[in-house]
């Protein structure tokens, strides 16, 4: 069996509030002092795939795929340290478009290329959403591009009779489904798919393993078109919301007076907010 | 009725002596028996030495002068053994008794088997009779005291084995039978020098009215041979029992680690190592293996272990003893497989090599991950066994080979890997604390070399709310004293201490190399830090990665500044600390690991005349706050919290300020003191904060 896991490198969502900066002109977050990390749901997806491989006990091959800047190599190396078998980076080269539709097209093209070379992927795993924009559409749009059935919010994959048994989170509880390849799932987190810490030996090995790199041109995609051509939304403005606290003390000589005053002011404020 | 020998005036004391082997026939049998005795003795030790030699290399015969000094102090001089009063007393009695009795036997041998008939005259009377009798009594009393402890008071720290009891019985019997034969000889021969052997003489006086000369003479022969057989048996047994410590302990002390506990972890060559960390005996160094055999089962290490004290399963004594047992059980298997090449995998039956980490023994993952690396065990061990580095060796295996460790440590390591600090979810950046202080950041300086000192802030100082005031106080004090310093700001990464103590040596090495590179870029020579963990890494560990600096803990540096009058004009005595009582908590990595106990106390002594009180466990016996070894990142069970145990001790001194010198101690004790202070107002404050209160100006905070 062959699994493919998509990864995204994002700005560390745990960056201390004061270190988070935005570039209003570019309408995007600035790197500033923040670190780059693998999106957590993507890591959950890697972990889910690894656990599937362990449960299947045999011939399961996992490939990690990332569309990102060259720094995203780190994410792929880490996935390899977690013992993913192969990794491929599609280099974005400064093309900053964050849009799911564009990303979906690029990933689909890359997947088709990888399938040409190594045979079809039975399952494609995508993180349910990313910790930067949180749009949560890449999985669905990628499934559309690939023409595969897709299921969202999956938390585990287990080898089932003949196919794969999926557990997915829904508003009313856990749904268990049987799936036949090929399919796509978006992965959410639960306590069992917390990404593992790699063994040191595997970390060292990950730097010795080959890592395939593809450019948009290799995939016969026009980077201009990828940037402009698939917009389904536009960022109007981006800003950091400010908390403004105004403090007013209720005045009065006695407790009663102050309570009266307070009640009056609450009335006024509520009325003014309307 | 009275026998008064040596004082009879007509007798010439220069002629005093006695007949060796009086009443004994077939003395040649002694020599015949001695052969197998010594053979077994030699074979036993040869087995041990062969086993040790199967270990990995370690350099432990360098610096002979220092080693000799240590040997004289703590082996010959029993420096550490006597730290414990009761055990110190009885051990000294038995130890000195053994030495004297051994010398006496040697004297007999020389007298009898060589032409040197030295056993006569004043030497015979004073040494061979009087002194030997007194020290023989020492042995009896010492063993009796030990027996009272083992059989009556039964403290927890001992291991209650039959072997230990038999050792006491055997030694007692040897000493007692020695006095019996001496007494009967005196009685039967009417020894004119009897008064010089007071204990033997007592025995003679007691036996005389009860027994005939013939009975005594027969008794003498029987007991004499019995004494000899027991003694020879004991000698043959020594290498197979904990009595082997008589030889292994001095050797272990001679080959002890001379570099302090702070520099006691091994480095790993990741390029060549076949395994990371240790899970097989053969991967230990010969010195580690010697450690196992040197253990006297005294239990002092476990007695002082903070994790053990609060009820966790960690027991350094049992770790050492279980590994010793494993080593003995594994015997030749271990030799074959662990033959020093670190290669435990292969065709030669390696599957039977038992792992050292075993849920069913004291070396369980749970116990290993309870260690705070405080080194109290190492400081307490009378024979200088190195327990903590072995715990780290095993942790390394679990972390790097098995990726198996507690959850809190996992988050910490994840954060270290992706954010170069261990505090996942912190709300602060590395420079937030500098707000309003105008502090130079090396990267932003025209000439970073202008900074004479690098103030190393440390993750615990910059990123944990509670400690930002400490680093602010330190920076303000440096400024006030006119020190030209700068910080690395965002370029600072964790020194790697938490990674190293948890066992992730690989991560530590990456962080260390990164920091050394950054500091090299700015030509850093002198470092001041308020974190003892960073301090320890710089001082003892970074030199291995090419980073050698003049390193100061902030209390050391501030103490120097204060001494040289750099805070003059601001009389500390007038400060608001005047009325408080302060107790200082020694951080493990400043005190035990690096031997600095005075600087913080000196500073406190000058802080506004505050009264200093000491906790019962202080200085080298200080009790860990519970935060070292990555434990600050682990949730301890509510009833097993090391910090609360320590906080209680601090609160019990009656102090209203608990002074600390470490960001980890500060947070751990803050929590602990809040849980244990009751209605009293007890506050935890860094020495730098207190000093700033005393000598600072405008933004003084009331304590
Ligand atoms: S270093 Fe401290 S916590 Fe660890 S075993 Fe020794 S005494 Fe116990
Ligand atoms: S390791 Fe040292 S302190 Fe611990 S029981 Fe053995 S001899 Fe005593």
| Termini separation of chain A | 60 Å
Count the domains of chain A.
2
Provide the structure class of chain A: alpha/beta
Radius of gyration of chain A (Å): 23 Å
Instruction: Point out poorly predicted stretches of chain A.
Output: none
Task: Give me the secondary-structure category of chain B.
Answer: mainly alpha
End-to-end C-alpha gap of chain B = 79 Å
Largest sheet of chain A: 9 strands, mixed
CATH topology of the largest domain in chain A: Rossmann fold
> Percent range for helical residues of chain A?
25-40%
Low-confidence stretches of chain B: 338-351, 698-703
User: What fraction, in percent, of the residue positions of chain B are helical?
Assistant: 40-55%
> What's the arrangement of strands in the largest beta sheet of chain B?
2-1-3-4
**Rg of chain B computed from alpha carbons, rounded to a whole number of angstroms:** 31 Å
Q: Which ligands are bound?
A: iron/sulfur cluster
Notes on the structure:
Chain A has 274 residues and is an alpha/beta fold. Chain A folds into two domains: 2-228, 3-Layer(aba) Sandwich (Rossmann fold), CATH 3.40.50; 244-274. Helices cover 31% and strands 26% of the residues of chain A. Chain A has helices at residues 40-56, 73-81, 100-118, 138-146, 200-206, 223-228, 255-273, and strands at 2-7, 9-11, 21-23, 28-30, 36-38, 61-68, 86-91, 123-127, 150-159, 164-170, 173-179, 183-187, 212-215. In chain A, a hairpin with a 4-residue loop joins strand 9 (150-159) and strand 10. In chain A, helix 2 (73-81) crosses helix 5 (200-206). Chain B is mainly alpha-helical and 703 residues long. Chain B has four domains: 62-252, no CATH class; 264-404, Fumarate Reductase Iron-sulfur Protein, Chain B, domain 2, CATH 1.10.1060; 426-558, Rossmann fold (3-Layer(aba) Sandwich); 572-695, Rossmann fold, CATH 3.40.50. Chain B has a four-stranded parallel sheet, with helices on both faces. Mean pLDDT of chain B is 91; it is low at 338-351 and 698-703. Chains A and B meet through helix 5 of A and helix 15 and helix 16 of B.
């Amino acid at each position: 069996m062959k699994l493919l896991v998509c990864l995204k490198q994002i700005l560390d969502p745990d960056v201390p509030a004061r270190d988070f900066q935005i570039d209003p002109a570019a309408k995007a977050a600035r790197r500033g002092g923040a670190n780059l990390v693998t999106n957590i749901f993507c890591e959950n997806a890697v972990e889910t795939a690894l656990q599937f491989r362990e449960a299947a006990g045999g011939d399961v091959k996992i490939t990690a795929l990332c569309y990102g800047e060259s720094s995203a190599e780190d994410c792929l190396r880490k996935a390899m340290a977690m013992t993913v078998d192969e990794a491929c980076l599609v280099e974005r080269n400064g093309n900053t478009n964050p849009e799911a539709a564009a990303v979906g097209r690029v990933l689909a093209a890359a997947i088709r290329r990888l399938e040409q070379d190594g045979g079809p992927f039975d399952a494609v795993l995508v993180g349910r959403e990313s910790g930067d924009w949180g749009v949560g559409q890449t999985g669905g749009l990628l499934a559309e591009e690939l023409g595969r059935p897709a299921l969202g919010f999956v938390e585990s994959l287990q080898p089932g009779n003949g196919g794969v048994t999926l557990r997915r989170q829904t508003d009313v509880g856990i749904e268990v489904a049987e799936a036949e390849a090929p399919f796509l799932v978006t992965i959410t987190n639960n306590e069992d798919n917390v990404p593992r810490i790699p063994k040191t030996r595997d970390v060292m090995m990950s730097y010795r393993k080959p890592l395939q790199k593809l450019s948009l041109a290799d995939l016969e995609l026009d980077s201009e078109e990828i940037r402009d051509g698939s917009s389904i939304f536009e960022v109007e403005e981006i800003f950091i919301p400010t908390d403004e606290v105004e403090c007013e003390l209720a005045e009065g000589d006695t407790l009663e007076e102050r309570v009266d005053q307070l009640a009056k002011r609450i009335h006024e404020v509520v009325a003014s907010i309307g | 009725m009275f026998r008064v020998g040596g004082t009879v005036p007509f007798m010439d004391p220069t002629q005093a002596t006695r007949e060796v082997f009086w009443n004994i026939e077939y003395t040649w049998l002694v020599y015949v028996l001695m052969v197998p005795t010594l053979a077994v003795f030699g074979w036993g030790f040869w087995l041990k030495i062969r086993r040790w030699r199967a270990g990995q290399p370690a350099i432990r015969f360098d610096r002979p002068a220092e080693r000799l000094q240590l040997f004289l102090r703590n082996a010959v001089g029993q420096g550490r053994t006597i730290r414990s009063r009761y055990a110190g007393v009885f051990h000294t009695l038995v130890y000195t008794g053994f030495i004297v009795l051994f010398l006496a036997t040697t004297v007999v041998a020389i007298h009898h088997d060589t032409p040197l008939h030295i056993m006569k005259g004043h030497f015979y009377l004073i040494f061979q009779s009087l002194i030997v009798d007194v020290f023989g009594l020492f042995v009896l009393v010492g063993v009796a005291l030990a027996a009272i402890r083992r059989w009556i008071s039964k403290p927890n720290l001992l291991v209650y084995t039959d072997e230990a009891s038999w050792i006491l019985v055997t030694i007692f019997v040897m000493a007692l039978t020695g006095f019996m034969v001496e007494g009967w000889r005196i009685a039967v021969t009417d020894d004119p020098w009897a008064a010089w052997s007071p204990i033997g003489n007592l025995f003679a006086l007691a036996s005389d009215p009860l027994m005939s000369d013939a009975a005594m003479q027969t008794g003498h022969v029987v007991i004499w041979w019995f004494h000899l057989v027991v003694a020879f048996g004991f000698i043959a047994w020594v290498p197979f029992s904990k009595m082997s410590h008589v030889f292994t302990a001095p050797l272990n002390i001679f080959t002890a680690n001379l570099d302090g506990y702070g520099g006691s972890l091994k480095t790993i060559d990741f390029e060549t190592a076949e395994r990371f960390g240790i899970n097989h005996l053969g991967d230990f160094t010969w010195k580690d293996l010697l450690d196992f055999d040197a253990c006297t089962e005294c239990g002092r290490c476990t007695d002082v272990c903070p994790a053990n004290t609060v009820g966790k399963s960690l027991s350094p004594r049992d770790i050492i003893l279980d590994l010793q047992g494993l080593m003995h059980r594994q015997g030749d298997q271990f030799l074959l497989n662990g033959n020093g090449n670190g290669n435990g995998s292969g065709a030669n039956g390696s599957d039977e090599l038992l792992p050292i980490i075993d849920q069913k023994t004291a070396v369980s993952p749970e116990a290993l991950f309870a260690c705070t690396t405080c080194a109290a065990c190492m400081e307490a061990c009378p024979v200088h066994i190195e327990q903590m580095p072995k715990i780290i060796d095993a942790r390394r295996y679990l972390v790097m080979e098995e990726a198996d460790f507690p959850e809190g440590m996992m988050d910490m390591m994840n954060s270290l890997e992706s954010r170069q600090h261990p505090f996942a979810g912190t709300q602060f950046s590395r420079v937030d604390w500098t707000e309003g202080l105008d502090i130079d950041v090396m990267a932003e300086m025209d000439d970073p070399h202008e900074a004479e000192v690098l103030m190393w802030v440390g993750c615990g100082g910059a990123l944990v709310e509670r400690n930002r005031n400490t680093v602010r106080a330190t920076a303000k004090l440096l400024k006030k004293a006119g020190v030209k310093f700068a910080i690395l700001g965002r370029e600072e990464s964790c020194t790697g201490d938490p990674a190293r103590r948890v066992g992730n040596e690989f991560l530590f090495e990456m962080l260390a190399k990164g920091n050394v590179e950054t500091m090299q870029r700015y030509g850093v020579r002198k470092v001041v830090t308020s974190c003892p963990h960073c301090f320890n890494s710089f001082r003892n560990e970074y030199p291995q990665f090419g980073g050698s600096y003049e390193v100061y803990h902030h209390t050391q540096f501030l103490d120097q500044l204060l001494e040289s009058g750099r805070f003059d004009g601001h009389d500390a005595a007038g400060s608001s600390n005047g009325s408080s009582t302060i107790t200082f908590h020694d951080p493990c990595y400043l005190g035990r690991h690096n031997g600095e106990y005075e600087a913080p106390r000196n500073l406190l002594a000058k802080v506004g005349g505050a009264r200093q009180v000491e906790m019962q466990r202080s200085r080298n016996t200080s009790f860990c706050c519970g935060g070292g070894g990555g434990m600050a990142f682990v949730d301890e069970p509510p009833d097993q919290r090391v910090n609360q145990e320590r906080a209680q001790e601090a609160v019990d001194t009656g102090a209203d300020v608990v002074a600390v010198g470490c960001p980890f101690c500060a947070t751990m004790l803050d929590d602990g003191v809040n849980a244990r202070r009751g209605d009293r107002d007890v506050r935890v404050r860094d020495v730098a904060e207190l000093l700033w209160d005393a000598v600072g100006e405008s933004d003084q905070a009331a304590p």
